[in-house]
## 1
Amino acid sequence: MLTDEQVMAQVRDGRVEMLALLFERHHIHLFNFFLRLSAERPLSEDLVQEVFMRILKYRLSFRGDSRFTTWMFQIGRNCFIDHWRARRPEVSIDDAWEQEPSPLPLPQDLAESEQEADLLSRALERLPLRKREVLLLSRFQGLKYEEIAGLLACSVQSVKVQVHRALHELRRHYLGLQGGNG
């Protein structure tokens, strides 16, 4: 079985039909990343498509010196930022990362079958966007701190601190929801 990096190297070298294999392997992970980041199913679907269009468009820039998933999430992050800027031009993306999330609840179709999973989803939604992003990348997408540091253009130590703080705040929200205070 070919690794993601080997498949992407083939796409880069002109075998663009191999992109379908990468789509099959990663579209659900990417969709879940966007869904948890934005809480908007149609937007998440659109962003997944945009990421794979950009992968195709920028395939020659793939050097293979990092994991494919790191490169893919960098493109995904850029797509999300571009969307955010186009949607809310009056708010800078830097301000948005620190902005408190909307108090609106998640749509009912996102409710998990188990109560704990639902509470975790709701607690995650209450996190500011930047904290939610580092948790999604580290815990849900399995990226290493070094990879996240590269994506966020900061130090590994900074990522560790951000993840620690995000987990602490997530726990606080989770316990608040569990106790009926949410």
## 2
Amino acid sequence: MKHFIALMALIATPLAAQDFSEGSEAKSWNLYAEVPARFEAEVVDVLCKLTGDCPENCGDGTRQMGLLRTTDDVMVFPLKNNQPAFTGAATDLLPYCGQTVTVDGLLIDDPDLNAKNLYLVQTVTTADGTVNKANQWTKEWAKANPDAAGKGPWFRRDPRINEIIAREGYLGLGQEADAAYIAENF
């Protein structure tokens, strides 16, 4: 039976290894194992698909979004949008909750690292052909945090992050551990 399962896995491998690079205009981020990938997918609430817990409108931005690829019914996890900061793609995909769209970006697939179907979405194209860049995260963050305006990266001004640092320190070990580390190393 072990040999049968191994043989079936070997036979299925070429079918599973599809090339989605045709027609992709994705820009390289020079990341290990990145491959340009353009495909059609339904934008879904991952938790909904996995557990059946399905709030309206994919949780209104409180859930991780996924891409259920139409050609093979594989769940692809969009972990990043098209901005230089490593911000998530949920903000950019939420407006398309439940819709079938065409996405273009970079697919990370590396069996040695157990990285499979991770995606960096750069554009979303709707059924009517409208192309939208996936770059809304920092704009939406600024709208949600008007009191955090200023210079420097958003995460230095984010009230949630600053509250955690105040409570737990930069190392997550408390203010005393931070003070000791700083005294020893700086």
## 3
Amino acid sequence: MDAFLLSFAVIFVAELGDKSQLMAMTFATRYKFWTVVAAITVATAIVHLFSVALGNVIGLALPIGPINIAAGLAFVFFGLWTLRGDKLSEDEESMASRSNRPAFFAVAIAFFLAELGDKTMLATVTLATTEGWFGTWIGSTLGMVAADVLAIGVGVLLGKALPEKVIKFGAAVLFFGFGAVLIYSGVTYSGVTS
């Protein structure tokens, strides 16, 4: 349950202001809401299952102290990435706006490809190095879907008047906080501090 809650919260935050949210809003203007949500869920579940497997292998192979330090540094990097922001590339925008495939497959394929190497995938790998794989997988998948559903709903209600800078800054601060806790935990566990 701890892995689920932590993964849900971290991935929900990681998804705020991410390009996947922009894709979700774009797809929601073209296809039915539930089709978009179902496709996002399937694509995310597949990518995050792979991410959790990779993170679990790394977690079993390496000692906890260095893993926590590396994970903390990764979260600091994710915070910086969040501050930089994400935009859809021309290919991603084209995929989201002009797909002629059936809606479910168009959305699922676009999300799957967009998530490969994305910060939410990397954050899931990082979490799975120290947390239980099943809770991390379910929590990260549902956290991302919840953030995308929120983006679709808010996008529909508010259009483009979203306070993007506030969202980016808040998400980055949370990443920096997670990073600091993990680095401290790793240094303390390694016996570097007394």
## 4
Amino acid sequence: MNDRDLLMALLVSRSVRVGDFTLASGAKSSYYIDARATTMSAEGQRLVGLVGYRLIRESGLRPTHVGGLTMGADPVAYAIAHRSALEGSPIDGFSVRKSAKGHGTGQRVEGGLPQGAACIVVEDTMTTGKSSLDAVAAVREHGASVIGVLTIVNRSADPRVFEQEGMPLLWAFTGEELLRAASR
């Protein structure tokens, strides 16, 4: 099996649940994907780094940074950053807080993201894309540009929402693809 197949198998075994769920978007669903159970595991980190880095390189995008809303984006961003360093083409990570902290420098974007950086906003699982768009707005307000968005699992987000903003949406798997694999 290749790295993508291994990541799919890990997501199916650790992250896919069938039942009645209410998603963060408020939508009802017959399945739930808690990708953090995969992205925060040692093997998940290795595979997310490989698959995520490959998606970025194959897209032709050349970011300087990857990150998104804490906490789902953090392991994805850091796995990709780590893989990029091993490949000799470093892409640094960053995190976006849900709100600016009330002490210290009061930053919302953490990790030393410089103004003018070329960023890819990442997420573990995406349904509507609202969280990613929130992160995009914070990164732009910080003074960096967003050149694309990447999610490990795209449940149902419409790529056109991002393309209209000049950002391609990249994903490794669809929710339906993982659900079919879990049903086998």
